[in-house]
Specification:
Helix 1 crosses helix 5 and helix 3 runs antiparallel to helix 4. This protein starts with a helix and ends in an 8-residue tail after the last helix. The chain has about 160 residues and is mostly helical. The protein contains five helices and no strands. The chain has one domain. InterPro entries: DUF2798 (IPR021529). Keywords: Membrane, Transmembrane, Transmembrane helix. It holds the Pfam family DUF2798. This is DUF2798 domain-containing protein.
Length: about 160
Amino acid sequence: MPTTKKESIQFGFMMCFGMVFFMTIYNFYLNGMIGELTLIEGISDFLIGFAIAFILDLFIVGPNAKKIAFKLTAKTTNKVYRILSISICMVIGMAFFMSIYGLVTTYIHNGFTTSSILSDYLSVFGKNFMMALPLQIIIMGPLVRFLFVKYVKSTKVVSV
C-alpha cells in the first residue's frame, strides 16, 4: 500500500481519522454521553483522541505492529495474510493504549466508580477490541485502502 514515508503518514491519518471517529461515537454511546455532551465537547474529545491515536500510530503501535506482522507472515507471499496480520496487530495495540486513555478520561470526569482499576481496564479493553476489530477488518480497512489507492497513491506516468 503506502510506499513512501509521506504516503504512510497520509494512510495513517485516514485510518486513524475513521477509526477514532467511529470508536468515539461508540464509546459515547457505551458511557451514556450521547445527548449529554455539547457538540463542542464531543468534537474536542474526538480531536484529543485522534491526536493521541495518530501519535501512537506513527511512533509506537504502527512500527511495532508491522514488525510483528511481517515476522508472522515472513513465509507467505499472500498479501491478504499480510494485510490481516497488520490490521489485527494494529487493533490489539491501539485498543490497548486507547483503552488506557479512555479509562483515564472516564476517571477524570466521573471519579473512581469501582474498586478495581484492572477489572475496569479489562472491561473497557474488551468492549473496544470487540468493536474495533470488525470495524477495522470489514469497514475501515477496505474503505481506506480503496480511497487511498483512488485519490492519494502516487501514480507514475510512463512517457513513450
